[in-house]
Specification:
Rossmann fold; four-stranded parallel β-sheet; about 15% strand
Length: about 260
């Protein structure tokens, strides 16, 4: 073998950018999640906005008891996302767990590791999205069981929404929820929307519902807000990105304060 060359240290270090990317979105997802990362890659990530992911333990079936078990892992999960560096927003991507644990408790757990960072949950973003449309009488569609759907109904009712109808699909495994075809969600949206509802909320970050929003809106002739679409919209606006993305539904053309 030939002798190795001398390794030299270059005398001048290059000037550094403030950040590799201008904005940072943290994302905490379930260990079993198939959908959130691809959705955020499509809707949020860009040459300006980076999406940084941590996964936390989760075991099916999707019951209120199992969902609540994730709460202790939230602080450690948040701490793993760019340790000691600030973020522009951080999202906990589980709609049903956010309802069971509570937005305030989730925010406290995440901010224990990331003080002062705006925290987004899917139901919180869903409420903001429905408010942006100015709708009060809504239909809700979830893939969950009746037991897991009940806290969702309470969450939206407590925030002033009149629930005209609530339809659930009875699934217990979030990995199966992710296998529901987007085209099937369009048909389900048509069937689940009450004639007097002003809009539809489709719950669950496992569902590939963000891909189906334009089709659902066309099918029912009313606004549709879904979990991943709403959190993506919320995170984009917190990053100062006001770009309109109508291919992901009408909500993605609104400002956060609308």
């Amino acid at each position: 073998m030939k002798p190795l060359p001398e390794i030299k240290v270059h005398p001048d270090r290059p000037a550094l950018d403030n950040r590799p990317l201008a904005k940072r979105v943290g994302l905490i997802v379930l260990a079993t999640d198939h959908t959130t990362e691809p959705d955020f890659r499509r809707m949020v990530a860009s040459e300006r906005i980076g999406v940084y992911v941590a996964r936390i333990p989760y075991a099916n079936p999707t019951t209120p008891r199992n969902l609540r078990k994730m709460q202790p892992a939230l602080t450690a999960g948040a701490a793993l996302i760019l340790p000691d560096e600030p973020l522009d927003a951080i999202c906990y991507s589980c709609t049903s767990a956010s309802v069971v644990i509570g937005d305030a408790e989730i925010e406290a757990a995440i901010q224990a590791a990331k003080p002062g960072i705006p925290v987004v949950t899917p139901p919180m973003a869903g409420v903001r999205g429905l408010n942006a449309f100015g709708v009060r009488r809504i239909s809700i569609l979830t893939p969950y069981t009746v037991e897991t759907s009940r806290p969702m109904a309470t969450y939206f009712a407590e925030r002033g929404f009149d629930i005209a109808s609530f339809t659930c699909l009875g699934f217990e495994d979030d990995r199966e929820m992710a296998r529901i075809p987007p085209a099937a969600l369009v048909d389900l949206a048509r069937q689940a929307t009450h004639p007097q509802a002003e809009g539809l909320f489709v719950s669950c970050t496992a569902l590939r519902a963000a891909l189906a929003v334009p089709g659902m809106e066309q099918a029912i002739g009313r606004p549709v807000v879904t979990s991943n679409q709403a959190t993506a919209w919320n995170c984009l606006r917190l990053c100062g990105d006001e770009t309109q993305y109508p291919e992901f539904g009408r909500l993605m053309t609104f400002s956060l304060g609308r």
